[in-house]
Protein 1
Amino acid sequence: MSNRRPSPPVSASSEIMMGLVLMSLSVLVSPIIDIFSKLAIATVPSAEITAARFAVQALCMLPIVLWRRNLMDTTWKQSFFHAIRGAIITVSMISFVTTLKYMPVADAIAIFFVEPIILTILSSLFLKETIGWRRYTACAVGFAGAILIIQPSFQEVGYVALLPVVSAVCIAISAMMNRALAQREDPWVMQFHMGLWGLLICAIILVLGHGSGSDVFDPVRPDTRASLYLLGVGVTAAIAGILGVYAYRSAPASTLAPLQYFEIVSATLFAWLVFGDFPDAIKWLGIFIIMGSGFYIIWRERRFASKPVSDTSQSTRAP
């Protein structure tokens, strides 16, 4: 008898390959969101950039959720959770966009990618998932890598260098909430409702911040160039989000998760081409440490069939 394992069906293999291609495209597009955000934040406050992103994304997704005809299936209880998710994502986005005014794109994204590490720890604390000492060690190593990037940035810009960590914590919390909602709700509807709630919360923040003089909360009337940047933020975020949704429909999240870390590479390339920013040797060391610890955590998750990182994969910075 042959000991060969049966080959997977051709259709399954092609689906997985399609998922890998779509995720690769999403990883390529996602840093462009931050490039447009950094260009816009020179004249537009963070909260307004975030509001524009929510507005354009919601408009792009509206035809899809209407076509799927399940927009009104959401219960009041689910709407409450969507409102909380919208608030959390709003804090995450405003924190990250504010960072881009003071830090290079690649540095901010690299620090943000401690998010799978944070999710692993939160899953252990609040969801009572079993996390062994190896993964805890990988988390500690990943944070050490983040410190290599944060420390020189902290000396240059102060506490702003910690905002990507705030953003990462918010995304990790949102990822845990996604688990409960994703079991009974369409992902398109989830994203659409989150966008609406995020837009509403941003509108309230901007109304309250009007006249404050804050470069985060005080709205301005953008000029033509800034308006194009805002449109670019929303459109690229919608494209990255749609690519991500279809990628996860085609391939397992555990298969796609490692590809997210290559966003750091594409972000570095785009930031170098547009702004001339390029990480120094110490920051590259921190980046590789974060990536290495993340890959190890993903490998351990796949080996023991637990899924904290899988959920993270569906909660990227392009919701």
Protein 2
Amino acid sequence: MAALLTPAGAADALAAALLGGLDPEGCPQRSALAVPGGGELLLMPAASASYAGVKIAGVAPGNPARGLPRITGSYLLLDGPTLRPLALLDGAALTALRTPAVSALALRHLAPAGRPLRLVIFGSGPQAYGHLEAVLAVRELAEVVVVARNPERAERLAAHARTLAPAARTGTAKDVADADLVVCCTTAREPLFDGSLVAPGATVVAVGSHEPTARETDTALVRRAAVYVESRAAALREAGDLLVPEAEGAIGPGHITGTLADLVAGRMPPGGPRSCPQLFKSVGMAWEDLAVAVALFEAAGASSAT
């Protein structure tokens, strides 16, 4: 898929969908079915005037131990007016492109600009690699620090990062204190770092969970941050990073500062020196899968025509 559409191109497709009038607040909810053995089956439909589509995704936590991907599935893209099937895409590969693209779009508006940045990335799986590429598509990096449970995988990602950025190394959760950007793309269910260490002008992106009881960031960070989400409705259903602090009484539903659509449309103040961290919490939405799948399909058509 990367040969057809870069993370920056996918971010452009997402921005175009929002600027075209799509309202994420009205998108269908994700359907989830528990599968015996500890897995989960997800169904994510979406439609626009020209296209419709549905992702059937499996989340199998036991797969990595079997040498298999944790995320599986397929995406069926259909013609909107006729509902005629047009393409079947690899659902895991689509997710691996879509999620970093969503983050890249948010970072275009939230991340500090004008100087090379220090990135701390939590995780060492496909999303970590995808997010590294996505961040590099929108900002210049001075250093990459990889924090992961598995030291060998962390060093492997750091070595890969050294081929793309001026410097990269493995580190610890305390490295967030010196970070301009913190990207969390893990399967963690508890906070990864002490949110009080994050600098006021830093930007944090958390994408690892869509479960109301799982989170990668702590209450300390959420309470002091300006919080942005893809959709208020989706976040208040699925974002444990926000729902756990709310259950603790630390924040209220009105704590959300704005949405991705607000950022893209310019409804939020322009970036610059800030008095608090900026937090973008993503849960992943079906409209994003559709927008990126359409961009891939149209890019493939253009490629075959040349």
Protein 3
Amino acid sequence: MSTFQQPDPKDRPARLTVGVVGAGRVGPALAASLQLAGHRPVAVSGVSETSRRRAAQMLPDAPVVTPAEVLERADLVLLTVPDDALPGLVEGLAETGAVRPGQLLAHTSGRYGAKVLDPALRAGALPLALHPAMTFTGTPVDVQRLAGCSFGVTAPDELRLAAEALVIEMGGEPEWIAEDMRPLYHAALALGANHLVTLVAQSMELLREAGVTAPDRMLGPLLGAALDNALRSGDAALTGPVARGDAGTVAAHVAELRRHAPGAVAGYLAMARATADRALAHGLLKPELAQDLLGVLAHGDGTEGDTR
């Protein structure tokens, strides 16, 4: 549940017309949540048939138009395009005169802060970086999932209250991120969320290979408990053969992965090394057990390095 109170009416932005440039998974959900707060989506742009269908489903009263027309119709424009496309989009909109003075321009990229909007700022726009720290499905369920979602917020000081108020109106919790810390902030989220999906998918594949008929049901309680423990206790929650220094078990893991899933070996070794380093630093892995374990991880097999 959000710990933030709804903003006082005098601090809330006036009811805004809202436009979306890029009807991917994120933009329509944010616009729909703003609609629930009393703002009015008036236009959306989308290129693919999938994005057009998504816009029609989630923003049925907002016509699909060109990006320039979105900016012409909206007081608040959400730029929800891929990170690599954002700088070129902003420059193009500014160069063609599509940006209006006083217009709120908010992008949802995790990588960039407000500086990427400088071309629009020079044209008189008000720049905001509002990145929701959540994965999106592109369906209406995303609107409900925004409740309590943290947003990485970066904006000029004079727009900070307006940016935070918009996030709160979407049901989120604003977290201020300094401009120069945006890439690190985004890397942290990618490490935790995006890589987690890869790890879980690999784990399910290996369990199926081992004969488990319902790997999702097996992993659900285990991963849920591990995540909860990690969020509560950090490195103190480390368990398993690496943290215990069971070099023989780790060597057996690597050998089996080489036989059944060679593509998973590099990831297993990299994560095991990182886990060993953290376990050592926090006194969980005994130094006398670490040598053999690190030897296995260095050689990547169960023969060399395991000298016990």
Protein 4
Amino acid sequence: MDSLTQIALGGAVGYAVLGNKIGRRAILYGAALGTLPDLDVLIPYAGDVESFTYHRGFSHSLWVHLLVSPIIAWLLSEFHPNTAHLKLRWFALVFLTLSTHALLDSFTVYGTQLMWPLTEYPYGVSNLFIIDPLYTLPLLIGLGFALALKQPSISAIRANKLGIIASTAYIAWSLSAKVMIDQKVEIAMEEKGIGAIAYVSTPAPLNTLLWRVVAVSESGNMTKYHEIYASVFDEPSEVSFQAYPSSPMLLDPLSDNWAINRLAWFTKGLYSVKRQDDNIIMSDLRMGVECNYVFNFVVAQTDAKGIQAINAKKVSARPDFASVGKIWDRIWDPSVNLSPTAPCKPLPLDETD
């Protein structure tokens, strides 16, 4: 999730655990610890694929949180010697702020390695968009009450707890909505004769009423990915479909390439392969929309000798917010088209990150 949400969640959890003992300082410590796991973005990994696929790794592991929490809790209790008798509460504050950060991240589609080092599997329930005001606002409102008072009060503590309860209830709703959407899309895909070899559903930006679904299918030697939009108010017959070609066979000569295999694994098969001039590009279909995917990697090039692997480089599509305003309309009206109406612009390969 976004940094503001993680700060709010960490602060709310910290205040719920120790707010009645140390007041607003519990919010400060919770907020700081709630952002700590994301500092892994500062690690200088060897390449773009490593940076992409190792993010939300060890720093988001519940096992690592369990290991470091006693140390951090001891340091905090030493810094506040008058709270030495609250070591267990300090431990709870540290562990819960760290672990709820990771768990919340696992509700997005990116992928969070909760069980590292036992497994690097990137858990991603994909029931929340990376920014969702309806999840964050209750936390901020509860914290607002707590911050308004120098001394903890029953009202502030209750308001903070209500914020946590409301945001948690929103997560429960989003999981229910996801089940509803998946059932509708499954029926719609069966009616169209689409069999998916890879599938994901995730909320469209800033809401949980409209969902974007990606399904990869194969038919003979042809591979397609389907960008699907479904509202919780849609009937299965009203679900929107648009298919696009992919050319994974371009990578067949590079079956032993680590970066290509790593991207295929991390995206859980939800990637496209396309050629742009002499470049072969893999795009993560889970994040972004057609023509504007967030994560694209130039992984190979063609020359007189055929297809040659290169040091994979990330390239970003220029954002296009033209269809954002249509999201609200599509929630209620299945005739609203969110698919691109013109061919995709070439990626700016001379501006690779």
